[in-house]
Q: What sequence folds into this?
């Protein structure tokens, strides 16, 4: 099948793009076209107007300062995967990007497209939720900032209004000093280059990596594809905070993440299996993040 007929627009600025959205009812933004293209080819999406963001150069950047990381919505998965400054500052981003699909999807797919799509199995929605990121949304009326924790509302339903464009993601660096923070993004996939059955992003900051038994000061964990939105498992975080990482704490954290999960069964993974994966991958991701924080990995 081919897409239904549509009128094509190629703005060169964010304001031009938002004006087009305001002008044409039901217009759809296009970024990497890795998800939208499939929907349109199958006529599951039939927009009359397509607003192609690929010439909006102001959305294509990665900016790392001492205070924060800012990533423009048009940054490709490949840009994020290969960014040395991101690998240093917030390694969960490149770790997550490197595991998305295969090279062709990563060469074209974008941060903004992934967050715009808001698939609960998506990698970046889990990352920005785990890291307490903020999204900047721009409309013809101005811009607003929405915390990731408030952006994802229900299954593929978000705070984004029809006339808004996601412009960037911002993550403050203060909670993640590089010399005593470790991060991990682990996935279980049924086959290479597909969507994961489950992913877990975790970050751990310790008090002093030189101590014999470094204490976990701050823990973050978010699970993808075990609920309608990225699931920040705060009960699991609490189980590992305030003491050196132990087998008992990992066990308890896994159980807490599993209990917080509310997964939909899939063809190759029923609900019970996904709950078991939630426990095991929470445990593994905390363990990996801790090892990285204390410098043993
Ligand atoms: C085979 C395959 C496997 C995949 N596996 C994974 C995976 O493991 N993990 C994962 O996370 N993703 C996966 N994906 C999805 C991939 O990451 C997509 O690239 C991404 O989800 C959509 O990004 P895009 O830039 O292609 O967006 P598009 O397809 O162009 O757009 C997707 C949606 O986002 C909206 N949108 C795009 N940009 C913006 C913006 N700036 N502001 C507001 N709305 C916007 C569009 O209107 C559209 O509704 C997979 C895709 C395929 C085809």
A:
């Amino acid at each position: 099948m081919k897409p239904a007929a549509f009128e094509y627009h190629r703005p060169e600025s964010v304001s031009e793009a938002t004006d087009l959205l305001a002008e044409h009812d039901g217009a759809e933004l296009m970024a990497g076209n890795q998800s939208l293209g499939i929907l349109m080819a199958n006529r599951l999406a039939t927009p009359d107007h397509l607003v192609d963001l690929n010439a909006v150069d102001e959305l294509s950047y990665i900016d790392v300062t001492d205070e924060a990381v800012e990533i423009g919505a048009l940054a490709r998965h490949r840009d994020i995967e290969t960014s040395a400054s991101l690998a240093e500052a917030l390694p969960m981003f490149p770790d997550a990007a490197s595991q998305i699909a295969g090279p062709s999807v990563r060469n074209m797919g974008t941060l903004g497209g992934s967050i715009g799509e808001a698939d609960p199995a998506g990698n970046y929605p889990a990352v920005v939720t785990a890291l307490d990121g903020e999204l900047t949304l721009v409309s013809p009326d101005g811009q607003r900032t929405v915390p990731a924790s408030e952006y994802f509302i229900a299954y593929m339903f978000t705070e984004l209004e029809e006339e808004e464009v996601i412009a960037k993601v911002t993550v403050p660096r203060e909670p993640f000093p590089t010399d005593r923070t470790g991060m991990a993004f682990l996935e279980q996939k049924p086959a290479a280059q597909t969507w994961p059955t489950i992913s877990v992003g975790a970050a751990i900051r310790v008090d002093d990596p030189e101590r014999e038994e470094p204490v976990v000061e701050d823990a973050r964990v978010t699970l993808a594809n075990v609920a309608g939105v990225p699931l920040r498992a705060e009960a699991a975080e609490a189980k590992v905070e305030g003491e050196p990482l132990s087998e008992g704490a990992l066990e308890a954290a896994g159980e807490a993440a599993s209990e917080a999960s509310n997964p939909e069964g899939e063809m190759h993974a029923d609900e019970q299996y996904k709950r078991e994966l939630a426990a095991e991958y929470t445990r593994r991701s905390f363990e990996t993040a801790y090892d990285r924080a204390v410098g043993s990995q």
Remarks:
- The CA atoms of residues 24 and 49 lie 7 Å apart.
